[in-house]
Amino acid sequence: MKNFLFLGVLIFFFLSGEIQAQDKLSDFTYPSQNNSWIFFKKGKSIQANTLYEEHKFAFGLNEEEELKLISSSTDEIGFRHDKYQLFHRGIEVEHAIWINHSRANYPIKANGFLPLPLPMWLPTEAQITENKALYNALKSLGDLRYAWNTDLEGMLKESHNDPEESYFPDPQLVITDTDFEFEEYEPVLAYKMEILSLKPVQNTLIYVDATTGEILKKLDNLHTTNTTGTASTAYSGEREIVTDEFEGGFRLREAFRRGGSNIWTLDANNSTILTDASDFIDEDNIWDNFPEEVNRAATDAHFLGQYTYDFFADNFQLNGFDGEGGPIVSYMHYGAENFFNAFFAGTFMAFGDGNGQPLSTPDIYAHEFAHGVTRNSADLIYANESGALNESFSDIFGNTIEYFLDENQFTWYVGEQVGRFRNMANPHEFGDPKIYKGRFWFNGDSDGGGVHTNSGVQNYWYYLIVEGGQGFDDIGRPINVKGIGFQKAMQIAYRNLTTYLTPTSNYEDAKNGSIQAVTDLFGECSFEYKAVVNAWYTAGLGNASQPNDIAITDMEEFEICGDEGDERAITLTLQYNGCDTLNDGILNLSYSVPDLSQADNQSLELKEILPSSIITFTFDRGLELPESGEFTINAGVILADDPEPINNQISRKLNKPKTLKGVEFISFNSVDARSKDSLRIESGEQSLVKILQGIGKEASRGLVIEGGNRTSFFPSLDEDPFELNPAHISRICMCVNATSNLELDLFFDRKQKFSTYYADNFSLDLETNAQLVNNLRVTANGNELARFFPSAENNDTFNTEIIKLDAYAGSQFELCFEGMVHQNVGTDASGVGDRIFLDNIRFDGLKNKPQNGPIDRSELEIDY
């Protein structure tokens, strides 16, 4: 979940006089079901065109921030969509896009990404020049042949009829996120520039720190389709094409198709140097005399450029990639003769020859074209979840256009005419996920964070809303989706992409945007609405649409440490899954802890519950914690005529360790009651925690964390292994009461072993390998205190470690040892495996602050 402030749920607002002090977002908006959306209350006297000026403080904007209108359009069903860009002290806050949706100047809803409030310390004046930033960027790329020094520069000026147009980078000062994850927004002032190279072909977005000159981020802006295999058919059959007559004959160029884009198809001559590109030429404009299939595919590309342009114009009123008639240039025979790739490079497309069958098939060509549409609308960042959506929208429109071109030849495969490599109807066939973060979900850094693999989730959603589906999913849930066909499905997808999504959108945003799109087009309770919602449920996002269905989606976590009798609030999160408004009803809520004989029952009156509304409910009576032990909290809700009682229950198993008071010592020699009761042990999905004989410091009993298997491990030097591979984490936690302590130290004995499997198979040096596959970290209340790695593969000896805990003296807190390991001893060829050994965990510290005079170190105690 994104855990910084979004506009949709801003509680923070600036006070500036009496008027602003009374001007709150909640005065004219409903509570939102999602952090990036708000819905305006009816009957309020607010105007869409002045909303963010007259009520800026309610929206979390201070005097130094401004939402500037960057585009406005009115669609065919009467909605006006005003897109705003956030600026801070006149500097663009990149990707901070906010879209207001209104009718008759009355705001109805709004969505987007606004990382507010921005810190006051954020600099807005660069410490390096634009030239220095550009120099650093070019230096980081190495020796390349840049587009502005080639004939492509002249083509750009000619196609736009503008002598000032250029590919030369124009560094732009922006505020952006440091890591582009957008989970915790960390703003930085940076120069952003796009650099296009033709030798080799690269289109790179580079961000340079405007204070230090450091390269912050490089984003590969080539949107590619990877292919393998061959096919032996002509792609498009006999088709009419529009060409350009010149003194040498006819060439594959069309000027201003339907008053819009220039469409050119050029021959790269099996080179990666596009300055060598030439025209395809025919003497009589009857393009039937190519000696080889590999050249005939050029006319496929040219025809498909024209057909795809017409398709977007006819169905979505879109004039080219950018809506402004920008050029559509395709390079055929790109790269070596067996180059298995096609890509969109920001301003042009390129297609390799494969094994004699170039990749200009209908679905691949339309796929690359759609990347241009995405770039000029939502501009989804080509990495992680936003990148997976970027790829998925290209698959969606690629296969949709293939269907309308020739439904008799259509399949749900991508690239089937040159070698199948994705299946939208069954993503599992190629190792892609159907369910969000389910089987085959990719967590690594390669492929831009899985942009091609994780696209399978939305691909499968789209297949379901087109065709429908019945049966059971991967995890045994029933599938019940009734298809609505291509015509309606593509309208929903296009409206979501171009109306509601922004550069940082993730899968949750795509789900919510598509629900808004189908509501706009077909209505909130429509057949189409249910198809969209139920398909997302099948793809692992949200709940199925059911009238009167109330579901428990979460039970809020609470601090488990504390003394016996301490009370903890029991809070449930509920969601209404009906597609209509629930205007009345009584909801009965209860929880019980049979192990502890505690319970509470309450009723809640429901009024004007909107579709997908989120309800948070806290019981009046909290849970009184036991001294120690395992217990289970069961909670449930009852609503009359609820059709889906299976989602009305939730259980949470908890294990409260006995609180260690003052300073204590835990060894495992006898595995006595105290050592068991004082620990909360959690084995991971792919790792185990055990207390075993012969592994302690003196060959007595000790704790060991050992690996399970390596199925979900991907070596990465750029990402924390704890974040990359959570299934391989096990924990040992304890509750500590140090309220009487002035100082506190933690001592423990540790040794670690690691398998060389990954070093042997991924060419990692042993030190790097050790840090990737065997990590131990110590945390207090979730805050990392220290991290430890093996010092030798199999010869690590027990070391006594000391960690200062003075910051936690005088308080109660939870201390955890978290081990991240992979290779199991039994499956390791060397018999070592990844293992962490712990023994003799003890606390030591000065108790009871002296009344006068210096601290007397003789007061150090060990209670054992």
Mean pLDDT: 83
| Main sheet summary | 11 strands, mixed
Shape type: globular
- Beta-strand content bin: 25-35%
**Rg from Cα:** 31 Å
Which structural class should the secondary elements be placed in? Answer: alpha+beta
Given the structure, what is the number of helices?
16
The parts where pLDDT drops under 50 for at least 5 residues are 1-22, 224-234, 848-864
Quote the distance from N terminus to C terminus.
43 Å
Number of strands: 47
Helix content: 10-25%
Task: Explain briefly what this protein structure is.
The protein is α+β, with helices and mostly antiparallel strands. It has 16 helices and 47 strands.
What structural keywords apply?
864 residues, alpha+beta, eleven-stranded mixed sheet, seven-stranded mixed sheet, 47 strands, globular, disordered N terminus, disordered C terminus
